[in-house]
């Protein structure tokens, strides 16, 4: 038996196997490269067409300086709010008394609530005229003379605040992960050395989690810069423009559509996104380093108190519960006015909604396209993270894959969206006008998520289990099927449910590539919103929220409480 | 013909500067032999083991087992681990948490397509060998560290592989358990005669288990021999240090006077007279102290002063100052105990050792072979 194996391992045989592995890896990366790079390529080609005249036209426009300033305000202001709130929330979470530990997961809830629902909820609460909260505030003696306000949710400061509150969850995630990795003895020794609670926080904890703080800040800044949903829904009333809404308007607010203008306006965001991805890649090396390893986490020496719980509860109330309440009231009302008539509340809006075939179609399209995209993304994420973590003999390919995977996260969805539109409305893949375009887009924007989640699972698994399997005589296939997959079951299940959540509330990219016949929940919601029939909008937003929460509950059930933190 | 044959194995790790983990290493292991690779961390022992397993690919060299080529850089042959028919025991045990002990142990058989009654019996037998037959239906998380390591051992034995590799398997166990598992492993090897390569940094483990010990340094074998050879005749000063001859005394001969650490000594030394400068290596246990030189007959002596003494149960650790140097002597608690206990820091005493118990090394670290009759200190 031994002899026969010797003949099978002739030099050429070995050589072929290695080359075969390499060919297979390249064959895997090439389609991904097309998915990610083709949109960016067509986008830039469009922007540079006709002697790059689109740049001159767009950036020479009189409104452009104000647009850029608003964009900067949005990015920096929301970043500042998110950093402060996120860090304080993470710190509060460590101070929770044992029986309230479950509250650590609450600051992540705003990520589950679809952003469109959140924004609509705020409109219903804080719109200057019929906003419920404004109406309540006007009862206060010093505001009693007002007919509108006092809060104008359609103004730039409130766009910044609402964006900041929604970004807080991201910062919270990164900073909490940082806290988890601090050895509690470091904290204890600082206390023993005579530092107070605040002193320990400022002099020991913050410096230790500086990498996570910076990384969280970079992510929040990118999201803030590329933020589209909030300014689109809130900014149009008072003419608050940012780069992302200008991109959208160049395509859908002008006759005829001006893709060159959209591409040109998007260029700064594209450059910043690509630069951040490349800088991260070359400064910090392989992204596997950013996979956090579950540690025991630290327990602060300070006595736990109820105050942190109150703080976290307030955040949840303001970020999630309040907008939801606004949504529910409007969804149950026949029309939206500043006063709530309890007797008039009914489920009529939902009946209307389910009687509209195109609304029902959009809901089903959302669900099954998301499901299909998740099914496609799971094996891609598994293979991609295996390559990134273990294919040490193919450094170039790994580097390329690492950047490819990160790009859809770095480049804002609205910019990518224009690229998708340009790519899939021409040969060889003319998909515009079919559901396939939504599917392809969803797969592309999920690449970073599926890969990261698989990577964190695999990294936590370590090498010893795999090596043990190999020396026991199992080949790579059996090792993956019988050892890696069963051990990753939690991460994979969690990844699936989470991607489903993210996709069912996808709004930005869908809005750019949809057509009259191809609608998902987010796009149908936007159309209903622009038509001004608010109770129906609220109903759709609620349905979107329910679908998303169902997905999230499934994620927690399958993947355990840590799933959401893998993001 | 030897069972496992390794020739000119070489492995570098990229970096600035690149580090050589294995340096042109060649060795042979007979069938049924138990060889221990001993050395400090970073000496290349684990890398060597992983190259044998196929988990790491060497840059150059060949590895063959029973005439079958596992690795040959020139012919570009590198069998993956699963084609090598080996077993391996990991430091972290690496038992798969989602499988019962039975399925863990049976995995190598399933992977090699052995099924049915025979396979089930082999699993039972392997479990019985390590005393785990009553743990078969538990999950690894329900086992103690020692049990896990025994299951891991059973898993490496079950398919009767050509070679079993041990990667510091005992270092995660506490001291008491370590000796138990070590004794069990020794007995198991005596019964089954599997071929084994065992990596450790613990010299007592190496001496207890090995039929041959290879002491590694910077990717090479500094010495390979039976535990007795290595223990009694360390080939170099490095091996001597690693194997427990931790006391180092620089010796010089000038004008017929021999000095140890600069202090004139009296007696014989295991180095021919032609050596003017050399290094003596001794175990603390082989050193004695006495009030005067005549109190230590047949010993080579040198005057020292007491620094400190520490009680250690059956022994007492005495630290003395010899010239500028601190020397550690471990004195058995016997009839001199009363006198030793009365010593105070600063007391002037004499340090002595039997010349046949110490080893001499030239300045390049090579052992100096003593004359038939140990040479007197004077010329």
From TrEMBL, chain A:
Lineage: Bacteria, Bacillati, Actinomycetota, Actinomycetes, Pseudonocardiales
Protein's name in the database: Iron(III) transport system permease protein
Signal peptide annotation: none
Localization annotation: Cell inner membrane; Cell membrane
ABC transmembrane type-1 domain boundaries: 68-280, 363-555
Species per Swiss-Prot/TrEMBL record: Pseudonocardia thermophila
Record keywords, A-Z: Cell inner membrane, Cell membrane, Membrane, Transmembrane, Transmembrane helix, Transport
Segments traversing the membrane: 23-43, 72-96, 108-133, 153-175, 213-234, 260-284, 305-332, 367-389, 401-423, 429-449, 487-513, 533-558
One GO term (biological process): transmembrane transport
Family: Belongs to the binding-protein-dependent transport system permease family.
Protein topology in the membrane: Multi-pass membrane protein
Pfam families, per the entry: BPD_transp_1
One GO cellular component term: plasma membrane
Automatic annotation (TrEMBL), chain B:
Superkingdom: Bacteria
Record-linked InterPro entries: AAA+_ATPase, ABC_transporter-like_ATP-bd, ABC_transporter-like_CS, ABC_transpr_MalK/UgpC-like, Mo/tungstate-bd_C_term_dom, P-loop_NTPase, Transp-assoc_OB_typ2
Domain ABC transporter: start-end pairs: 4-243
GO cellular component, one term: ATP-binding cassette (ABC) transporter complex, substrate-binding subunit-containing
Molecular function in Gene Ontology: ABC-type transporter activity; ATP binding; ATP hydrolysis activity
Keywords: ATP-binding, Cell membrane, Membrane, Nucleotide-binding, Translocase, Transport
PROSITE patterns the record matches: ABC_TRANSPORTER_1, ABC_TRANSPORTER_2
Transmembrane stretches, start-end: none
Record Pfam families: ABC_tran (PF00005), TOBE_2 (PF08402)
SUPFAM superfamilies: MOP-like, P-loop containing nucleoside triphosphate hydrolases
PANTHER family membership: MALTODEXTRIN IMPORT ATP-BINDING PROTEIN MSMX, TREHALOSE IMPORT ATP-BINDING PROTEIN SUGC
Protein name: Iron(III) transport system ATP-binding protein
Organism of derivation: Pseudonocardia thermophila
């Amino acid at each position: 038996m031994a002899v026969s194996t010797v003949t099978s391992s002739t030099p050429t045989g070995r050589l072929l196997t290695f080359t075969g592995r390499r060919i297979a890896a390249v064959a895997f990366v090439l389609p991904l490269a097309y998915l990610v790079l083709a949109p960016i390529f067509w986008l830039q080609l469009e922007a540079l067409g006709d002697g790059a005249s689109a740049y001159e036209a767009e950036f020479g426009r009189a409104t452009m300086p104000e647009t850029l300033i608003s964009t900067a305000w949005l990015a920096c202001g929301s970043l500042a709010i998110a950093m402060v709130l996120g860090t304080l929330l993470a710190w509060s979470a460590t101070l929770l008394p044992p029986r309230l530990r479950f509250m650590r997961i609450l600051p992540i809830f705003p990520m589950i609530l679809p952003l469109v629902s959140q924004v609509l909820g705020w409109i219903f609460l804080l719109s200057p005229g019929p906003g419920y909260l404004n109406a309540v505030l006007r009862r206060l003696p010093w505001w009693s003379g007002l007919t509108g306000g006092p809060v104008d949710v359609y103004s730039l400061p409130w766009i910044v605040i609402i964006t900041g509150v929604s970004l807080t969850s991201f910062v919270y995630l990164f900073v909490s992960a940082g806290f988890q990795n601090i050895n509690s003895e470091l904290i204890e020794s600082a206390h023993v050395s005579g530092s107070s609670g605040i002193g320990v926080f400022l002099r020991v904890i913050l410096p230790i989690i500086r990498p996570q703080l910076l990384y969280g800040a970079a992510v929040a800044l990118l999201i803030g810069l590329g933020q589209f949903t909030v300014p689109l829904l809130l900014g149009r009333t008072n003419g608050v423009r940012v780069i992302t809404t200008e991109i959208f308007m160049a395509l859908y607010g002008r006759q005829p559509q001006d893709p060159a203008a959209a591409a040109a306006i998007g260029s700064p965001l594209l450059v910043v996104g690509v630069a951040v991805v490349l800088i991260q890649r070359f400064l910090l090396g392989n992204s596997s380093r950013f996979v956090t390893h579950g540690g025991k986490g630290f327990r602060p020496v300070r006595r736990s108190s109820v105050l942190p719980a109150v703080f976290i509860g307030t955040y949840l109330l303001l970020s999630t519960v309040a907008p939801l309440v606004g949504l529910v009231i409007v969804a149950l009302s026949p029309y939206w006015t500043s006063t709530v008539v309890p007797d008039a509340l009914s489920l009529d809006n939902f009946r209307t909604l389910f009687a509209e075939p195109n609304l029902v179609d959009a809901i089903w399209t959302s669900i099954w396209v998301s499901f299909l995209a998740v099914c496609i993304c799971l094996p891609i994420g598994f293979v991609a993270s295996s390559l990134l973590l273990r294919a040490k003999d193919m450094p170039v390919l790994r580097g390329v894959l690492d950047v490819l995977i990160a790009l859809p996260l770095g480049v804002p969805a609205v910019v990518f969206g224009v690229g998708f539109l340009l790519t899939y409305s021409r040969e060889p893949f003319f998909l515009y006008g079919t559901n396939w375009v939504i599917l392809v887009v969803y797969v592309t924007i999920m690449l970073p998520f599926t890969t990261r989640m698989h990577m964190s699972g695999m990294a936590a698994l370590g090498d010893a289990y795999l090596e043990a399997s190999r020396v026991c005589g199992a080949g790579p296939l059996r090792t993956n099927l019988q050892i890696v997959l069963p051990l990753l079951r939690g991460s994979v299940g969690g990844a699936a449910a989470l991607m489903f959540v993210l996709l069912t509330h996808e709004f930005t990219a869908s809005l750019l590539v949809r057509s009259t016949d191809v609608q998902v929940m987010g796009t149908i919601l936007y159309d209903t919103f622009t038509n001004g029939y608010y109770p129906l909008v609220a109903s759709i937003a609620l349905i979107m929220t329910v679908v998303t929460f169902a997905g999230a509950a499934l994620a927690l059930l399958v993947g355990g409480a840590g799933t959401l933190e893998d993001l | 013909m030897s069972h496992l044959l390794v020739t000119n194995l070489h492995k570098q790790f990229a970096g600035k500067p690149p580090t050589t983990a294995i340096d042109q290493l060649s060795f042979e292991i007979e069938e049924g032999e138990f060889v221990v690779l001993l050395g400090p961390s970073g000496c290349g022992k684990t890398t060597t083991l992983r190259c044998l397993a196929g988990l790491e690919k060497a840059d150059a060299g060949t590895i063959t087992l029973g005439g079958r080529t596992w690795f040959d850089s020139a012919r570009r042959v590198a069998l993956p681990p699963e084609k090598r028919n080996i077993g391996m025991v990991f430091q972290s045990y690496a038992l798969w948490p989602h499988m019962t002990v039975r399925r863990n142990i049976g995995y190598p058989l399933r992977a090699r397509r052995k099924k049915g009654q025979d396979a089930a019996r082999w699993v039972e037998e392997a479990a019985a060998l390590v005393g785990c037959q009553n743990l078969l239906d538990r999950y690894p998380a329900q086992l103690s560290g020692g049990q896990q390591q025994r299951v891991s051992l059973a898993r490496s034995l079950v398919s009767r592989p050509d070679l079993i590799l041990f990667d510091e398997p005992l270092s995660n166990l506490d001291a008491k358990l370590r000796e138990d598992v070590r004794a069990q492993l020794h007995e198991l090897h005596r019964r089954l005669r599997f071929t084994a390569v065992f990596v450790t940094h613990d010299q007592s483990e190496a001496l207890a288990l090995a039929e041959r010990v290879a002491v590694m340094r910077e990717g090479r074998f500094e010495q390979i021999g039976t535990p007795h050879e290595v223990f009694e005749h360390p080939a170099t000063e490095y091996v001597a240090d690693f194997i427990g001859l931790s006391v180092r005394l620089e010796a010089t001969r000038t004008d017929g006077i021999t000095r140890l650490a600069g202090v004139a000594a009296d007696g014989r030394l295991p180095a021919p007279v032609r050596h003017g400068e050399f290094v003596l290596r001794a175990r603390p246990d082989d050193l004695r102290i006495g009030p005067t030189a005549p109190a230590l007959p047949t010993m080579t002596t040198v005057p020292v002063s007491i620094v400190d003494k520490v009680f250690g149960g059956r022994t007492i650790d005495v630290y003395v100052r010899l010239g500028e140097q601190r020397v550690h002597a471990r004195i058995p608690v016997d009839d001199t105990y009363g006198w030793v206990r009365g010593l105070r820091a600063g007391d002037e005493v004499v340090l002595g050792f039997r010349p046949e118990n110490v080893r001499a090394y030239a300045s390049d670290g090579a052992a100096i072979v003593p004359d038939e009759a140990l040479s007197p200190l004077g010329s």
